[in-house]
Amino acid sequence: MCLKLITLFVITYMSLIYKPKINVRVDSELNLNNLNLCQNETVFIHENFWSITIPKINLEKVKIKESVSTSVLENYIGHFPNSSILEGNVCLAAHNNGYSNNYFKDINLLDVGDKIYYSYNGNNKVYSVAKKKIINYNDFSYLDFTDNDTLTLITCINSSPNFRLCIQAVCEEEFNENI
């Protein structure tokens, strides 16, 4: 049920409300130098070097894949297409129960100030949770581009198909070490 709702959420958002700004191409070669996302720009995504770590909930270096499709969310944390990768609002989704991989099963335990480590292609950021909110399933405002570096995590709420849990974190620091 949750998977169907996430899929409906994404399809509705992508087809009716959200106007694509960025062309995305998944690429396995390391040829990216600049990930500043601009409108009408093609971005090459290197999924082999993309992960998230949330120590409080024992989530360690879980791979992120482009898309929040059924097949991606079954095995990975999904990246909302056309959201940022490094600068602005990086938006991610994952299951929290009922599937073989429920990576966001414990994000409800996160509190303001908890740390989230995000890594993409050698670029690493430490985020601090700033907001934890229950939102309507069709509230897409939390996926909008932001001027500051934000990480948005979204998952279903058990037994509440009309709502989602949304965690937003702000970037505290960047570093180039392996996390």
Summarize the structure.
This protein is mainly beta and 179 residues long.
Write the layout of secondary structure elements.
Layout: H1 2-17, E1 22-26, E2 41-45, E3 50-54, E4 59-66, H2 70-73, E5 77-79, E6 89-93, E7 115-120, E8 123-136, E9 150-157, E10 160-175
Can you give keywords for this protein?
179 residues, 8-stranded mixed beta barrel, 10 strands
Q: What would CATH call the class?
A: Mainly Beta
Helix segment count?
2
Helix content: 10-25%
Largest pleated sheet = 8 strands, mixed, barrel
Distance between the termini: 34 Å
CATH homology group: Sortase
Mean pLDDT across all amino acids: 81
CATH topology: Sortase, Chain: A
Q: Name the shape in a single word.
A: globular
Label the structural class.
Answer: mainly beta
**Element pattern in H and E:** HEEEEHEEEEEE
The neighbouring-strand order within the major sheet is: 3-4-5-6-9-10-8-7
- Using only C-alpha atoms, the radius of gyration works out to 15 Å
Number of domains: 1
**Low-confidence stretches at least 5 residues in length (pLDDT < 50)?**
10-25, 27-41
Notes on the protein architecture:
By secondary structure, the chain is mainly β. The protein has one domain (2-16, 50-175): Sortase, Chain: A (Beta Barrel), CATH 2.40.260. Helix content is 11%, strand content 42%. It is globular, with a radius of gyration of 15 Å. Residues 10-25 and 27-41 have low confidence and may be disordered.
